[in-house]
Amino acid sequence: MMKQRIMKLATGVCSVVVLAAVATGVSAGEPDAQPVSDWPIEMAVTHVNVGVHMDVATDQITGETIISYYDEVDKDLYLALSFGPGPGNCGPEDRWHCHLLDSDGDVGQYNSVAVGGGGGWAEVWVSYYDATNAALKVVRAEYYRYTGDQFSFMTRTIDSGNPAINSFKGRHTAIALSPSSLPHIAYQMANPFSNVDEAQLYAHYVGSGGNCGEGPDAGLWQCDVLTNDEGVGEYAAIDYELDPRATVAYFDRDRGFPMVATYAGSGGNCGPSNTWLCRSVEHAGHVTGKYLSLFTEASGVPHIAYYNETDESLEYATYVVSGGNCGFSSGSMQWEWQCDWIDDMGSSLTSMGLAMKEDGQGYPVIAYQDATSMVGPAALKLARPYAATDWSGVPNCGPQDLLYTWLCEQVDGGGSDLDEASVVAMSMNPAGEALVAYRELNSYPFPAEGRIKVAVEPREIFTDGFELGDTGCWAVTMP
User: 5-477 in CATH: which number?
Assistant: First the structure.
């Protein structure tokens, strides 16, 4: 017998859910999109003009939500926690706790967040770009995880570029923590000249004997070049599953496809002394790889999701060694990757949101922007293999085996807003349920304002109708 559990939602959240249920109907041009109007959705960060650069993590011990974001007005880096001591200072009804992490110049673009630490103390690491000094920086924050108090943090510069010679380090950062909560960061060195190569870089904390880190962190970090080439390093992603193996994925803009680099120790074809193995995920005749996202299985097998610009679609690729339909092919190694169409995404003049995680069953879950409608706003959708669902919907996307094998559902249709999900981030809670943080562009004011929203599982089944009252409300949910 399937168990039910009762969840009390904070006052005001349920009214947002009701609005979301109205707004997440099937959009024009997408007759087969199945709405997920029963996801609780709320505005997490209500500061205006935020979310162009943001990321989300979930504490795997407490399940609390942590969002890093860039304030486009003040050019500052913030951290938002879904809990904390006493009343909050941001979000709806000030339920969230927002901390200013760095305001020294223009700081906080391309931020990425990860959380670790054991026992009662949480460690949050945020990597980000210092545009004033063209440098990669990190913040390490610590707080008591069961109350959110005793919050403290420290900023560090890891690797500086040189604006005088057009060397910009720290764009497109992505951070992951090892099992011992040590940070590993993928980032780009960029320049504006076509005759000077970009670089995909990788930094990790070594404690001593390293070649980077500045000030009090001098020599505490090791910064390595994985590859130098024109156009490499955009939309970098990183995952860390097995010591000492990290996996980095990035877009090769000049060639028009993604690359995946895995630490091999020896016998590779990139990185210092060829200690990394770089594999292309070329899909012949297609420009693919923008907005990419990555996860690796516990065994180290990589999976990536990205935008296929040629077909204006969401694509998902898995490393299969041989017998796939894309990637490298030579001799006995025939097509190392399997690249599959998942759903149409449309196109946008600005960025398009896309994020992927591995759920608690080992399946991919992908949140992405649907901009296919020509008359309505862009929407937030979620795709997952049908085998990973509760079987309540009808498979309507993904590779076909007589029938479709994935379920693509609409989470937030945008309503009267200009669009949803031009930026998307995702994390998984300890139960393997998805939390999606995304940017909403509100078209009511002029100029339009960007804010950050969150949508979370479990899915809501019933509410008692008191959503607009002061007493809160109750919801019955299925695990």
Answer: 2.120.10.10
